[in-house]
Amino acid sequence: MNKAIAASIALAIALAAAQPFAAPVNAMNEQGTAVPVEQERDFYDKYMKQFVHNENGEIIGTTRETSLNTDWLHNVSARNSLTVDGQSVDADIVLDGTYLLIPLRPVMEGIGYELTWNAKNKSAEAVKGPIWTSVELNKDHYPYAKMPIQLGKAPMLKDKMMYVPLQFASEVLKADVSLNEQGDITIQSRPEQIPQDSFGGMHWVIVVNGESIGVPTEDVFTTEDDVMVPAEAIGKALGYTVEYNKDTGAYEFVRGAKWIALKEGGTAAAVGNMNVELNTAPIIKDGKLYFPFGSLADVFGVKARIDPTGVIGIQEELSS
């Protein structure tokens, strides 16, 4: 792949910033054929509409209205060449106006997300470890770190599959996206990072069913395996009574007919008559029981996510 042209075109789909290239590169002319240009600035000036400049007048990025030559975009769409984390995706690339749209499910599943479709509001929720986002049909609203991002184009439905702008991969999923001069699209995910609390100064907030439960930030900490959260505080916020059983050494959570038992050092939680394997063993610290965030969903039957700012969101799933 010609890395210079890939980076140039990647900027056109709203990646972070332009990088300077000293050597000549190839760009597409109005007929969609490759032509040499001396500098990347010539490429931007000829084929892009909007720029972001620094105080020295240098191009450092583009607005989301930026677009490439439409004939060339048609060629990219017709080529249908999409690779996600090294695997070819068998799906269409859709061109809608000047926006290239990619299929949501195969792209997100290709980089390790689990998708849940909500038929009632026509939306999809996606979870990958502590990372969460959602996409709603016909709504230009893409959450990232509690903040809605607008990409200038709402998701659309085609052949019973949801499509999102290519910018979604870079700006929401934070993946590396590139296009080469042949029109091949490559999406490469970045290594997942668990938020760090001790050295990174993370300020943790736990929100249960839309309300902060008021635990101090030091009541959340990370280990090599997971983020540890206060089990008793979360259980009570979910409506459980919590008692310590001296005979068994377990903390018992009771709400109606539901019974859960957690024990320090245990590799499984007792949920009714079943044993549920835990991501890592619970820990007692300063007289409090801490539980792995990654096991909240399986044990308590909730949806749980952490956004990059340190907000831990826990939401009970409504029974149908």
Automatic annotation (TrEMBL):
<feature type="domain" description="Copper amine oxidase-like N-terminal">
    <location>
        <begin position="207"/>
        <end position="307"/>
    </location>
</feature>
<protein>
    <submittedName>
        <fullName>Copper amine oxidase N-terminal domain-containing protein</fullName>
    </submittedName>
</protein>
<dbReference type="Pfam" id="PF07833">
    <property type="entry name" value="Cu_amine_oxidN1"/>
</dbReference>
<dbReference type="InterPro" id="IPR036582">
    <property type="entry name" value="Mao_N_sf"/>
</dbReference>
<keyword id="KW-0732">Signal</keyword>
<feature type="domain" description="Copper amine oxidase-like N-terminal">
    <location>
        <begin position="84"/>
        <end position="182"/>
    </location>
</feature>
<feature type="signal peptide">
    <location>
        <begin position="1"/>
        <end position="22"/>
    </location>
</feature>
<dbReference type="InterPro" id="IPR012854">
    <property type="entry name" value="Cu_amine_oxidase-like_N"/>
</dbReference>
